[in-house]
Amino acid sequence: MTTLHLAQLFDRDPGFRKELVYALRAAASGFQRIFVPGMLGLASSAEQIAEFKRELLCEVCEIPTLPPSIPGLRVFHRMESYLHQIGVELFRGFPVKEVVIHDGLCTGVRIAAPGHAMNLRGLCVVLATGRHSASPLNGAYAGRDQQMRPLASTGAVMARNLFIAESLPDSGAATTAMPCAFSQGTARKSRSVHKGKPCGLMTLRLTIA
């Protein structure tokens, strides 16, 4: 039985949760904290996990296991659910062919959709593909500024509304991930594009207040 199977049981089977509380409560007797493999559900809310801890009478810490990591999947599902709620449209499995830049602005991306290429337009574009984030820039990338905007070899910003949101250790950029936030943005209609190989690209259409 895998941690994925256990997490699914935790989500849908109240009887399993009660048995788990009973077994762990006995093991944790006399301790303030217990460590368990990441298995506390794929869809569990913070409130549900807090209730599980109260029933157990001690703190519970999850240890991430080999992929698939249940805590990571839980975060992904929550994020995906939130994106759907605010109107984000997800495209999966379509390779990004080009990032379109005109006059210092990124106007969108071109993806290889079935039958013909598709242009997705956006007010902001975020390259969030890990160490391969610069791949769609066709070798023009030479670093990034403090606002996470890609720079050309001349040191100029490639596009004012284009951002790279992950660390790129092979490009000489800082190795610490610095996510880009649009705290004053109001999402009206958003699109995210997950690139097939080697990684993905996210496009956000935002109205900036």
Using brief descriptors, characterize the structure shown.
2 domains, 12 strands, 26% strand, elongated, 209 residues, disordered C terminus, three-stranded mixed β-sheet, three-stranded antiparallel β-sheet, alpha/beta
Instruction: Extract low-pLDDT stretches.
Output: 168-209
- Helical proportion, percent range: 10-25%
What composes the largest sheet? 3 strands, antiparallel
Global geometry: elongated
Cα-atom Rg, whole angstroms? 21 Å
Beta content: 25-35%
Q: Quick one: how many beta strands?
A: 12
- Spatial gap, N to C terminus: 50 Å
Q: Mean pLDDT across all residues, rounded?
A: 76
Tally of structural domains: 2
Which series of helices and strands comes N to C? HHEHEHEEEEEEEEEE
Number of H/I helices: 4
Brief digest:
By secondary structure, the protein is an alpha/beta fold.
Task: Set out the fold topology.
Layout: H1 3-12, H2 14-27, E1 33-37, H3 46-56, E2 59-63, H4 70-85, E3 88-92, E4 96-102, E5 105-111, E6 118-121, E7 124-127, E8 162-164, E9 185-187, E10 190-194, E11 202-204, E12 206-208
Parallel strand pairs: 1-2, 3-10, 7-8
Antiparallel strand pairs: 4-5, 5-6, 7-11, 9-12
Task: Describe the 3D structure.
The protein is of the alpha/beta class and 209 residues long. The C terminus is likely disordered. It contains 4 helices and 12 strands, in the order ααβαβαββββββββββ. The protein has 2 domains: 80 residues, no CATH class; 122 residues, no CATH class. The radius of gyration is 21 Å and the shape is elongated. α3 links the parallel β1 and β2. The strands form 5 sheets. Strands 4-5-6 form a 3-stranded antiparallel sheet, with no helix packed on it. A 3-stranded mixed sheet has the order 8-7-11, with no helix packed on it.
